[in-house]
Amino acid sequence: MIANIKKYKELMYFLVHKELRIRYRNSLFGFFWTLLEPLGLMLIYTLVFGYIIQLDKGVSPYPLYVLAGLIPWTFFNNSVRKGTRALSGNASLIKKVYFPREIFPLTMLISNMVNFIPAFALILVLAVVLGHPMQWSELILLPLVILLQALFTLGVALLVSILNVYYRDVEFIINLVMRAWMYMCPIIYPIHMLTGAEVSSTVKDFAGLYFLNPMAVIISLYHQPFFPDQGPEIKYVIYTVILTVVLFLGAWYLFRRMNRRVGEVI
Amino acid sequence: MEAIVVNNLTKHFRKAYDKTLKGFFISLVKGEKRHQEFTALNNVSFQVKKGESYAIIGKNGAGKSTLFKVLSGIIYPDSGTVNVHGKVAPLIELGAGLSRDLTGAENIRLNCAIFGLDKKTIEEVYPKIVEFSELEEFIHTPVKFYSSGMKARLGFSIAIHIDADIILIDEVLAVGDKDFKKKCYAKMNELRDSGKTIVIVSHSMKPLRDICDRALILDKGKVVEVGEINEMIDKYQSDKKTKKKKKQKGA
Ligand SMILES: Nc1ncnc2c1ncn2[C@@H]1O[C@H](COP(=O)(O)OP(=O)(O)O)[C@@H](O)[C@H]1O
Ligand SMILES: [Mg+2]
């Protein structure tokens, strides 16, 4: 893979550039759209889930909590949704020329990452504006969290991109799954909601399984520098790292195997 | 020195199947095979020498495009070996490697990058490609608005400028206009004389006699015969005629 990346540097640059340009070419706000979208969602969620449904107990300021989870989630969500079509959307090329097909999911991830970084800075800006204290020791570890998330996301993207070539309904299933997955992550509610007194007993029974969802762990890691009591236990972090590596290797293996017939079934 | 060596190449296709999970589960429950196998290439062996011009002739569905796809690595053979020495520029069927939503200019850069050219070289060959294709006016138009002839122009111009050692040309010139075809045939002669290996699939036999040294006749995935170009074309055409006669007699 590394050798391929070197050889196809120019191609990857082209594809990332193209992806970014297409995304911003037709929109009035251009690049600021990346920032406006999560800010807009933050406002909506704060109104609906903070004021009306009142999920904001124990995390203050709630808008910061929402934004700190929403931005990494958006990165994941966009990458997986776009990832589903990373191969099937490029059928005209794949049928006619050969180059390593993993380049498509990979460049898709990179271009989403390019969008993610400035949006991520927005969390810091909001924290500063609100005068919210930050844990610097944990803040400097965030690049590692981003790396972990990127690897996990790439694993999922490799998997869904190749599966969607063989079974086109993967795309529709993924749309539904991503919606459910979002509610399984601590984005609009703080994690102690799951174990709080007012929660039904079924939820409490399953609360122990909550952090088996790697994205819940990753999102919590993003919360941690701002809301120290919202971080995951270390055992879950280790679990997520191991799971990510296993998922990535498994996805890579499957991608390689299924790649053999991509040129004819796509 | 051989540029292409193919030994006992066989390729099966699975006939089109229900590309949904529903289809998958239904056949899983019924316990039936999900696809019929179809042999597109059957024990194909041949060699192309370096610097040679080689024609592959055969009817529609004979497996010519499939063979090119295997040679360029787009699809994998089921058995047999394929050895290709040198960089391959494939021009397979209409719209060869062009991305519909990109403009002509973007497609040039994309394809150059796919074939491993670096930035500097791309900037160098870009004007040459545009010039050869004679598409200056439309170069910033998305390719989806191109006619098939224009796509053929663009594809051919790219393929001959990326400094490949082996060029595979699959029927792309069938849609070009007369002048452009002439220009392309002249270019192919020039490329052959400069030592490039060219493999051509075409249904217009006249230019093949001009350009090619040898030919392979492919029928229903099998090699019928390999030999000198004129001999092969005569044989192919007389085969066709006798078959027609037989049919007429039968009727
Ligand atoms: N991706 C594919 N999946 C299934 N069958 C295919 C595929 N590509 C080609 N075929 C079949 O293989 C046969 C040979 O096709 P092709 O190589 O395109 O013929 P041609 O000699 O006209 O270029 C045809 O019968 C075609 O239907
Ligand atoms: Mg064909």
UniProtKB/TrEMBL annotation, chain A:
Provide the membrane topology annotation.
Multi-pass membrane protein
Q: Where does it sit, as one GO cellular component term?
A: ATP-binding cassette (ABC) transporter complex
Recorded hits in Pfam families, A to Z, give:
ABC2_membrane
| One of the protein's GO biological processes | lipopolysaccharide transport
User: Keyword annotations for this protein?
Assistant: Cell inner membrane, Cell membrane, Membrane, Transmembrane, Transmembrane helix, Transport
- One MF annotation (Gene Ontology) recorded for this entry: ABC-type transporter activity
Primary residence: membrane
The question of whether Transport is a record keyword is answered with: yes
- Family, per entry: Belongs to the ABC-2 integral membrane protein family.
What's this protein's name?
A: Transport permease protein
Q: Which organism is it from?
A: Melghirimyces algeriensis
TrEMBL record, chain B:
Residue intervals passing through the bilayer = none
What organism, scientifically named, is this protein from?
A: Melghirimyces algeriensis
Matching entries from PROSITE patterns are given as:
ABC_TRANSPORTER_1, ABC_TRANSPORTER_2
Keywords, A to Z? ATP-binding, Nucleotide-binding, Translocase, Transport
The UniProt GO MF terms for this protein read:
ABC-type transporter activity; ATP binding; ATP hydrolysis activity
Family to which the UniProt record says this protein belongs: Belongs to the ABC transporter superfamily.
Q: Does the record's keyword annotation contain Zinc-finger?
A: no
Q: What is this protein called?
A: ABC-2 type transport system ATP-binding protein/lipopolysaccharide transport system ATP-binding protein
Q: Does the keyword Amino-acid biosynthesis apply?
A: no
This protein's GO CC annotations: membrane
Domain ABC transporter span(s) in chain numbering: 26-245
